[in-house]
Amino acid sequence: MINQDIIDASNDDFKTDLHTDYESLGARLDRRGISIDAIKQKVAGYGIAVPSWGVGTGGTRFARFPGAGEPRGIFDKLDDCGVIHRLTGATPSVSLHVPWDKADPADLLSKADEVGLSFDAMNSNTFQDQAEQAHSYKFGSLSHTDAATRAQAVEHNLECIALGDKIGSKALTIWVGDGSNFPGQVNFTRQFERYLDAAAQVYAGLPADWRLFTEHKMYEPAFYSTVVQDWGTNLMIAQHLGDQAFCLVDLGHHAPNVNIEMIVARLVHAQKLGGFHFNDSKYGDDDLDTGSIDPYRLFLVFNELVAAEGVAGFDPMHMLDQSHNVTDPIESMMSSAMEVQRAYVQALLVNRAELEGAQDSNDALTAQAALKTAFRTDVEPILAMARLEKGCAINPIAAYRAAGYRAKVAAVRPAIAAGSSGIV
Ligand SMILES: [Mn+2]
Fold first, then answer.
1. Which domain holds residue 272?
2. Buried b / exposed e across 396-423, counting CB within 10 Å, b at 16+?
3. Tens digit of pLDDT for each residue in 188-236?
4. Nearest CA-CA partner of 120 in 223, 211, 199
5. If pLDDT is split at 50, 70 and 90, which confidence band does 313 have?
6. Is the dihedral of CA 298, 304, 309, 315 positive or negative?
7. Does residue 124 sit within a domain?
8. pLDDT digits over 401-417, tens only?
9. Ligand 1 centroid from CA 295, angstroms
10. Which UniProt keywords apply (predicted)?
11. pLDDT more than 70, % of the chain
């Protein structure tokens, strides 16, 4: 993996400047009544899960251009995820996708232990057909018109729970591609009722300490309608299923310009916010690197999360969900994990008393300025110091490149043929 000597040598390049910058920021935050060390402790304790599929190069509907040294299977993926956490100290867990990551639970646990990771939510897959399966998902899975196909999809989700239970996971995330491409193709109501009935059968198989997350998505692969298209439908599902069911918000799964931070607030109010898939987008479900397009929106989401801290039962799971087409996936995931931490820290800096006072007195300008003051603060020294104190890298990208990890794994992992398509 990454040798500590390489991390230390890289840190030597940045350490002096970091101490100067941390002290200077500390003095400025002190004037705002904020303890920099307290903020650093909070971010040091913050972790975000990485998806196993995120360490592979993604693709579009048109093509996929594989990178060097791509992981050959789940054990290579866990190595790569271990590197991300080793350098950033920000990603202590991995989210598995079944059947892509199916393996012996004892082997999974032993590998996770070796690379210092644990397992986050399990993800089922009923949006593509597997070689051995009896019924096709071409026309849907949990909402399919055919009872045997629905039963097969339910059974697959129960298998995911069974595997997850053996490796310490505590949640199942369900996203279905079910929907329609033509007006009139499906009966909206009957299709939704079939989905609810099948989802209830999955829910019935949850262990008592598990949560079920359902993820809404407006379109794709179905382009006219999807069964779980928006947060309203998602909330109906979670409320229909019961106390262990929650809504998962993927930032890319909304119409352009939708106020996602307000959706977050509504789900907090309903006590149904289960978690996030972080990514960024310009047009649709672009799966771009978190914070690369609209870091202010990410901050506004975290502003709602920080405001909700301490609310009973409020414990959303955080995960990245991106597709990397033109970057080294490890570099993108490290960068994105740090962007999420940055948004969290900026949201911690919001002067809540000032904000609430301005809201109550209808002083719109002061209210927005309270947010902007926090957002404009360059919190990088806090993030970097938290990393340094954990023995991680002040500059993870620089340390990763210095370690030559990609070239090392490319020497042992065979190149994948170019030209294959598909969104990963
Ligand atoms: Mn997602």
1. 34-351
2. bbebbebbebbeebeeebeebeeeeeee
3. 999 999 999 999 999 999 999 999 999 999 999 999 999 999 999 999 9
4. 211
5. confident
6. negative
7. yes
8. 999 999 999 999 988 76
9. 18
10. Isomerase, Manganese, Metal-binding
11. 98
In a domain, residue 384? The reply is no
Number of domains in the chain: 1
Question: How far is the CA of 141 from the CAs of 136, 150, 154, 277, in angstroms?
Answer: 8, 6, 9, 22
CA dihedral angle for residue 157, residue 127, residue 271, residue 361, rounded to 10 degrees: 170
> Residue 369 domain-assigned?
no
Would you say residue 320 lies in a domain?
Answer: yes
Query: How does residue 424 score in pLDDT terms, banded at 50, 70 and 90?
Result: very low
- Distance (angstroms) between ligand 1 centre and the Cα of 110 equals 27
277 Cα: distance to centroid of ligand 1 (angstroms): 5
Residue 265 CA, distance from chain mean position: 18
CATH number at residue 247: 3.20.20.150
| φ, ψ (nearest 5 deg) of residue 134 | -80, -35
**For residue 207, cis peptide bond before it (omega within 30 degrees of 0):** no
For residue 12 the two structure tokens come to 């030597």
Query: What is the residue whose two structure tokens read 């969104």?
Result: 423
Helix, strand or coil, per DSSP, at residue 273: strand
Kindly indicate the confidence band of residue 419, based on its pLDDT and cuts at 50, 70 and 90: low
Tokens standing for residue 240: 């229909």
* Count of CA atoms in the C-beta half-sphere (13 A) of 28: 15
pLDDT at 414: 87
Contact in structure between 62 and 422 (CB atoms under 8 Å): no
Alpha carbon of 207 to ligand 1 centroid (Å) = 23
